[in-house]
Structure formats: C-alpha cells, structure tokens
Amino acid sequence: MFKKLFGHHKETDDHIYAPVNGTVEALKDVSDPVFSSGVMGEGFGIHPSDGNIVAPVAGTVTMVANTKHALGFTMDNGLEVLIHMGVDTVDLKGKPFTINVKPQDKVTGGQAIATMDLQQVKDAGLDDVVIVVITNTKDSLDTLNVENGAHQAGDQIGTATAKS
C-alpha cells in the first residue's frame, strides 16, 4: 500500500483485454496469411458479435492508420501492439470505422477506442475478424498467454510480459 502511495513502485498493466465482444481464436486460425503465419508477431484473432472496439492493452496510442482499420499501442512494459480490424479492410478507405483516439493518447485496457460497421465489412465480402498482434515479439516478448473462447469486450483474457 505504501509503495503505491509514495510512488516507489509503478504497477504496470501487462493484461490483454478482449477488444470486442466475440470469440477468441488462435492467430494461426485467422484467414489473413500475413498474420496467421506469425510474421507480424504473436497474437490472436477475435470474431466480433458487434462493432464496439476497446483497447486491447493499457498504454499509449502510437499510430492510427489513415484508413482507420488499424491502431498501434505501446504498453508501459515496452511491448508494441497492433489491432487490425478485419481482413483487407484497408480497401474500404476508412468508411466502416470511427476512431475515438489519436496518437499520444493514454488508454486503459477496455477503454472504448473505435467502432467498426460489421455490415459494411460483410457487404464488401470481407472477413470482420479483429486481429491483435505484438509487433516487437522477436525482440521484446517473453510470454503471451491468451484464453480462447467467448469473451466480452474489456474482459481480461491474458497477459503479455516483456523480456527483462
């Protein structure tokens, strides 16, 4: 308790949060080969049941794609996290997305950050899976544990710890 009061110990949030209501699956099972191959880093996919997107981690927003389909975060532990909404949705030029954060914003895990119009994505014939990857896996990730299955947006579904 005193450590928190006097600031001697900063608690870092290493949790991974469900970015949307839906069903979490292994990254190797997502339809996008760039992500499923692991080349972008370790992570997971989640098939959304609605389009309300929340921050998958606590940290700082580092990137919002011009086409609004992807956002980047840096966790306090140094891990770099990408959330990618849908497969090939870059081609939709931002239309299905509303982004509520900007670079340098601090976010907490589970904080509302965006919406995705699932019907627009489906009408375009695209997969609406939301993909979360740790892009600096090779250099910085020690362990990533994520619980597959049905989750609510903002649920703590795992942890991502950085190499010390």
Automatic annotation (TrEMBL):
It is found in: Cell membrane; Cytoplasm. It is a multi-pass membrane protein. One of its GO terms (biological process) is phosphoenolpyruvate-dependent sugar phosphotransferase system. Pfam families: PTS_EIIA_1. InterPro entries: Dup_hybrid_motif, PTS_EIIA_1_perm, PTS_EIIA_component. The keyword Calcium does not apply. Residues 32-136 form the PTS EIIA type-1 domain. It comes from the Bacteria. This is Trehalose PTS II ABC. Gene3D superfamilies: Glucose Permease (Domain IIA) (2.70.70.10). Keywords: Kinase, Phosphotransferase system, Sugar transport, Transferase, Transport. The keyword Transport applies. GO terms for molecular function: kinase activity.
